[in-house]
């Protein structure tokens, strides 16, 4: 789920959607998956139930961080806490699978700029088609679909990917899915239902929305292009302005045969 969120955030023009809020969705996805694996209980305050590794490097890193500084804290506090390089770790894993590639460019013949190029356009199109189907749906969703749609909304990707009047219905549907929950994280934690998966999703989504709320005030859903340090691949967030030129539901553009995503840092 984290990989798919990152792929949706990549743009063909060398920038990245959802700079401010993507990390909250990624942390929320990890918390949800760890809870589903029985490693922790996120209700109220995080309780670690099983500190053993899962076998997934990114989830294991999240679990180790929770054991170190997340246990006993409200889930929104851990989700909101800074975890440098989280987005880049997902990009690096995608690169290891041959889905994206980090390339160095030069602007004006002087400045080095790192950009992430999508190599597997089919993977991106499959992810987008899955989201489009959810956004156009009217009936019940599977837990996986509801989780995916909810975290897309947490990241602000619904605003970026379905802009303007023609995207209003899709945005409303994704918002409805994400916010079809108890009115607060404490209420969700206190009222388990006969559907444990739905209850768990409620806890995590509400915590993620709470964590992302300050970022919503600081900047719009689509902030300044990602900038990557050319030596370490670390992206730095900037929130000086925001744009609204995201792809629509059925527009998949290519640049020289692939997506060109992730902005660059001038040195």
Provide a descriptive summary of the structure in words.
The chain has 267 residues and is mostly helical. It is 48% helix and 10% strand. The protein contains eleven helices and seven strands. The protein has helices at residues 2-9, 22-36, 57-69, 75-80, 86-96, 121-135, 143-155, 157-161, 168-179, 185-190, 196-218; strands spanning 40-41, 47-48, 100-107, 111-118, 227-228, 235-236, 259-261. The strands form three sheets. It has a three-stranded antiparallel beta sheet, covered by helices on one side. α1 runs antiparallel to α2, α2 runs antiparallel to α7 and α7 runs parallel beside α11. It is globular. The model is unreliable at 218-267 (pLDDT under 50).
């Amino acid at each position: 789920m984290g990989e798919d969120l990152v792929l949706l955030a990549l743009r063909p023009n060398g920038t990245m959607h959802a700079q401010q809020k993507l990390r909250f969705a990624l942390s929320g996805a990890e918390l949800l998956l760890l809870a589903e694996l029985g490693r922790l209980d996120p209700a109220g305050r995080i309780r670690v139930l099983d500190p053993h590794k899962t076998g997934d490097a990114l989830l294991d890193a999240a679990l180790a961080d929770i054991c170190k500084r997340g246990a006993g804290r409200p889930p929104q506090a851990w989700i909101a806490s800074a975890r440098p390089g989280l987005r880049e770790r997902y990009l690096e894993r995608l690169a290891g699978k041959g889905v994206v590639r980090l390339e160095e460019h030069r602007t004006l013949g002087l400045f080095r700029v790192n950009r992430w190029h999508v190599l597997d356009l089919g993977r991106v199109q499959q992810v987008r088609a899955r989201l489009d189907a959810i956004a156009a749906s009217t009936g019940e969703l599977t837990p996986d679909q509801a989780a995916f749609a909810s975290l897309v909304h947490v990241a602000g990707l619904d605003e970026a990917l379905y802009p303007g009047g023609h995207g209003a219905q899709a945005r409303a549907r994704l918002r409805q899915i994400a916010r079809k929950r108890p009115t607060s994280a404490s209420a969700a934690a206190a009222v388990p239902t006969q559907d444990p998966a739905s209850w768990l999703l409620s806890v995590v989504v509400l915590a993620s929305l709470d964590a992302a709320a300050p970022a919503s005030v600081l900047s719009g859903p689509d902030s300044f292009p990602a900038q990557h340090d050319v030596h370490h691949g670390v992206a730095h967030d900037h929130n000086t302005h925001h744009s609204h030129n995201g792809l629509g539901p059925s527009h998949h553009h290519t640049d020289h045969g692939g997506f060109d995503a992730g902005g660059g840092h001038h040195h």
